[in-house]
Description:
The chain is mainly alpha-helical. The chain is 60% helix and 4% strand.
Amino acid sequence: MTMKSFILLALSLTSVHMTTAAGSAAHRCFCQVTGTLDDCACDVETIDRFNNKEIFPKLQKLLSSDYFRFYKVNLNNPCPFWTDHSQCGLKYCAVKPCTPGEVPEGLKSSSYKVLLSHIVYITRFVVGGFLSLNVSPCSDETRQALQEWKKHDDESDRFCMLDDVDSPESQYVDLLLNPERFTGYKGPEAWRIWNSIYEENCLCVEKRAFFRLISGLHASINIHLSARYLLDENWFEMKWGHNVSEFQLRFDKELTEGEGPKRLRNLYFLYLIELRALAKILPYFERPAFHLYTGQPTEDNEKKKLLLELLHMAKSFPLHFDETALFAGNKKEAIKLKEDFKLTFKNISRVMDCVECFKCRLWGKLQTQGLGTALKILFSERQIEAMPNTSNTNPSFQLSRQEIVSLFNAFGRISTSVRELDNFRSLLSNLKQ
Length: 433
Ligand SMILES: Cc1cc2nc3c(=O)[nH]c(=O)nc-3n(C[C@H](O)[C@H](O)[C@H](O)COP(=O)(O)OP(=O)(O)OC[C@H]3O[C@@H](n4cnc5c(N)ncnc54)[C@H](O)[C@@H]3O)c2cc1C
Ligand SMILES: *[C@@H]1O[C@H](CO)[C@@H](O)[C@H](O)[C@H]1NC(C)=O
Ligand SMILES: *[C@@H]1O[C@H](CO)[C@@H](O)[C@H](O)[C@H]1NC(C)=O
Ligand SMILES: *[C@@H]1O[C@H](CO)[C@@H](O)[C@H](O)[C@H]1NC(C)=O
C-alpha cells in the first residue's frame, strides 16, 4: 500500500467512523421521532414536510403583521396559589411593553370592533332588532351591551381564564420585540410551576391526552430556549443561536432516561390538535363581517386574504386528527370529560400568573390561552359557519381579538419548534462525537 492510498484509507475510515457516531447523536434524540403517531393516522415526516415548506413561511408572514404582533396582556395579576414568590431579577426576563404611541390607533378599539361586527351580525341575521344599531359606537349603552353579551355568550365555551383587557393593568406588548428565547429562568421556581401544571393531570379524566398536550408545550418552550440560546455577550451586543448541547441535555434519550424522544412526539401531538382547530375555524373567518381590523383597510384586507389562505392550507392537510376520538365513549362521559378539561385548563392559565420570569409568563400565558382557544374551537357545540343558520336563535360561535391573536401565535410557536427540529437534526449529524 502506498503512503498516499494509506492516507486516503485512513481518511475515509475516519469519515465513516465520524458519520456513524454523528448519526447516533442525531439518532439518540430523533430515534422515536419518526413514523406514525399514536391515536392518529399521521406520520412525523408528513407533518415535517407540510409544516416546514407550506405552513411555516406563510404563518411567519402573517404573525409579523400589526394585527397579530400586538398582544394585550396583564402581566401583573397576583399569583393566586402561593405568596412566597420572588421576582425574577434576570435582565433577560424583562418584557418591554408598548408605549401608547406604538400601538396602531385602529387596534386599540378593535377588540370592541370585533364585538361590534358580531352584534351587527346577530342583529342582522339572527335576533333581528335585539340591539338597535342607531346607538353611536362609543356610547356607554353600547359598551355595556357589548360587555353583557360578551360575558353571557362566551363563558360557557371557554377553556381559559382571559385577562380583562379593559383593565388599566393590561398592556400591549409587541411580540416581535419580545421574542421567546433563553432567559436563564430555572431551578426550584421553574420546577414548581411545571410540577403544579403536571399535577393538574391527576385531576383530569383524560389523563393521557392532557399530559401529552402539556408535555408538548413544555418541549416546545425548551426547544426555543435551546435554539435561541444566549451564546455570547459583550458591551456591544448579545449573540443568540443554537446550543446543541443544551438541546441534547433535554432530548437525548440516554441523557433523559429515554424520555426525550417521547417529549418530541408529544410536540407533534400538540401540533395536530392546534392544526385541526385551525381547519375547523375557517368558516368563522370567512364571514364577510369579519375583519382583521387595524384601521388600514388595504393592509387589513390583504392580511385577511393571507389568513384565509393559511386556513385553507390547514384544512387541506390530509391526515387530520379526529378530535371525536379523544372524547369517545357515551355522551355523558364526553360532557364530563369536556368539563374536566375546561376546569383544568382554567387552573393552568392561573398558574401562569405565578411564573416569576415576565418573559416566560408572557409566552406561557399566550400559549396556554392559544391552546385553550384551540380546545374551545374543537369542543364547542355552537355552529361555526360562514353563514350561520338564521332560524337558530342560539348565538353563534365567537372569538375575541385576544383569543385570535393567542391562537395563531401559539400555533406559530409550535410550528417554529417543528421547523427548529430540522435544524437540530442537521446540527447533530454534523457533530464530531
Ligand atoms: C411557563 C414557563 C415558561 C418558560 N419559558 C421559558 C423561556 O421562555 N425561556 C427560558 O429560557 N426558560 C423558560 N422556562 C424555563 C424552562 O422551561 C425550564 O424550566 C428551565 O430551563 C430549567 O430546565 P430543567 O432542565 O431544569 O427542566 P424543566 O424544563 O424545568 O423540567 C422539569 C422536569 O420536568 C420533566 N420534563 C421536562 N421536559 C418535559 C416534557 N417535555 N414533558 C414531560 N416532562 C418533562 C423533567 O423530569 C424535568 O426534570 C419556562 C418555564 C415555565 C414554567
Ligand atoms: C388548581 O391549582 C392549584 C395549584 O396547583 C391547586 O392547589 C388546586 O387544587 C387546583 N384546583 C383545581 C380545581 O384543579
Ligand atoms: C450550551 O449549553 C451547555 C449546557 O447547558 C452549557 O454548558 C454551555 O455553556 C452552553 N454553550 C454556550 C456557548 O453558551
Ligand atoms: C336551522 O336551524 C333550525 C332550528 O334549529 C333547524 O330546524 C334547521 O334544520 C336548520 N337548518 C339548517 C340548514 O341547518
